[in-house]
Design brief:
Bound molecules: guanosine-5'-triphosphate, magnesium ion
Distance between the termini: 20 Å
Strand order of the largest sheet: 3-4-5-6-2-1-7
Order of helices and strands: HEEHEEEEHEHHHHHEHEEHEHEEHHHH
Structural class: alpha/beta
Helix content: 40-55%
Shape: flat
CATH topology of the largest domain: Rossmann fold
CATH class of the largest domain: Alpha Beta
Radius of gyration: 30 Å
CATH superfamily of the largest domain: P-loop containing nucleotide triphosphate hydrolases
Number of helices: 15
Number of domains: 3
Length: 454
């Protein structure tokens, strides 16, 4: 239905640069009448506008000769343009009035505003971009840090293909087992357990891959560093010191942070999500309780965690428990508030590295930062396999559903020939995961996720 309304006969335009006002605004017009319409509003200084690939300086005017702006125009003759059509880009001053006037004129001259992703749609239909190009482009826009970009550009390395192949070879082995079981029905019960385990492991593998895509899509692909400790220990003070700005409220009142706060920092050129959590203690407040639970739940997905302890209070039972429970996740202990009377050094030996100091002292923060860098340098960061594209992730979801059905069928004791048939069909689907992406696969994405002007 969308495609029916988006006639290629129309000449379309849109502001392709960011929000106004801005230094420069770029209004792009593409379609069969792009040059004819431009001739009526744009007057180059030195020669008449003509159909060639060029950069022009000149004056933008309304049809009744009112000056709009002095601009630079860039012209492209189809098919040698992004959309494959004749295209004119008006590089104006980024003023609301200038852009409004220009758009009013273009509209009056029978161009129409472009829909979301419509330039890309035309590029696709004119063979200037492949569906895979547009898929990758859509993800480039979502990338929030350099590691994401690297992962997108690395898609060509074949990492995902290798992963999918490992799933497929498990299914091939399973197929052999099921095919044999068809001939030896008596021994069939022996293979059931093996088959279920094999399918289960592929389901887990698929979910790891699709999870990578959803984490990337939700901007959650960064490794996480979680700050925990008792109320008042100085977690939010440390959080602010790491960020280099006052982000979390710091106060002498215990229980100040009630919800987890997440921000990004760079350590050794790598972005990290740092999470400040609510101090754990027994409380009657439902909100605070929830905050505490949330804080601890962050620990299980942390790449690194930091336990902040008030050195005037010392180690409590809960902190000892945490050090025990999460000992396998790299961590540091900050034995804080060294500047205060009543502070005493750690008395029991801890398995973790302990840094004694005060977050209020910049020298101590420097030392802490050095230790943190060492820890980050030596930390294997989570799951960093290849990120699938949206289409590949959707295909894997479908395969996961089919695998679950196969697993249920195994559980129900269905005959091996039926299982073998289901398994064969999943193998075919797996071959297709990294296969050709069709125009229809990406259309929905272009129209729903691409911005106007792209
Ligand atoms: N003197 C001194 N005061 C500190 C130090 N670190 C934190 N404080 C103070 O201790 C109080 C609590 O600090 P916060 O950073 O809010 O502690 P928190 O762990 O985030 O506390 P909750 O959010 O309640 O869990 C504030 O008054 C801070 O200024 C320190 O090293 N020395
Ligand atoms: Mg706090």
């Amino acid at each position: 239905m969308l495609r029916k309304n988006l006639s290629l006969e129309d000449t379309i335009f849109a502001l392709t640069s960011g929000a106004l006002p801005s230094a420069v605004a770029v209004v792009k017009m593409s379609g069969p009448e792009a040059f004819a319409i431009s001739e009526k509003v744009f007057f180059p200084h030195n020669e008449k506008l003509s159909k060639k690939r060029a950069v022009w300086t000149g004056i933008l005017k309304t049809r009744d000769n009112q000056k709009i702006d002095n601009i630079v125009a860039v012209t492209f003759v189809g098919p040698h343009s992004h959309s494959g059509e004749d295209t004119v880009e008006f590089h104006c001053h980024g003023s609301v009035a200038v852009v409004k006037l220009l758009e009013r004129e273009l509209l009056a001259l029978s161009a129409r505003p472009a829909s979301r992703g419509e330039f890309s749609y035309r590029a696709l239909l004119n063979g200037k971009q492949t569906p895979t190009d547009l898929e990758n482009l859509g993800d480039v826009f979502k990338a929030s840090h350099s590691a994401d970009l690297e992962a997108i550009y690395k898609r060509k390395d074949g990492g995902l293909e290798r992963e999918i192949e490992s799933f497929r070879s498990k299914l091939i082995s399973l197929q052999a087992v099921l095919d044999t079981a068809v001939d030896f029905t008596d021994e069939y019960s022996h293979v059931v357990e093996q088959a279920a385990a094999s399918v289960e492991s592929i389901i887990r593998g698929c979910s790891v891959v699709t999870h990578r895509y959803s984490r990337f899509k939700n901007g959650k692909s960064l490794p996480k560093m979680v700050l925990v400790g008792s109320p008042n220990a100085g977690k939010s003070s440390l959080f602010n010191a790491l960020l280099g700005r006052y982000r979390a409220i710091v106060s002498a009142e215990a229980g100040t942070t009630r919800d987890a706060i997440e921000e990004q920092i760079e350590i050794l050129d790598r972005p990290w999500n740092v999470v400040d959590t609510a101090g754990f203690r027994s409380t009657d407040s439902a909100i605070e309780k929830e905050g505490i639970e949330l804080g601890t739940s962050f620990l299980s997905s942390a790449s690194i965690w930091i336990l902040v302890i008030d050195g005037t209070v010392g180690l409590k039972k809960r902190e000892v428990e945490l050090l025990q429970s999460y000992r396998n996740i790299p961590h540091l202990v900050l034995w804080n508030k060294k500047d205060l009377n009543g502070w005493s050094a750690v008395s029991t030996p801890l398995s973790a590295k302990v840094i004694e100091g005060s977050v209020l002292n910049s020298f101590d923060i420097e030392s802490f930062w050095c230790e943190l860098e060492n820890l980050c340098r030596n930390t294997q960061i989570g799951e960093t396999g290849p990120i699938p594209t949206a289409v590949q992730a959707a295909r894997l979801e479908t395969i996961s559903a089919a695998l679950k059905e196969l697993k249920d069928s195994i559980g129900l004791g269905l005959p091996p020939e039926i299982l073998a048939e289901k398994n064969r069909s999943i193998m075919v689907q797996l071959e297709n995961v990294v296969g050709k992406v069709e125009v229809d696969d990406v259309l929905g994405r272009i129209f729903s996720e691409f911005c106007i002007g792209k």
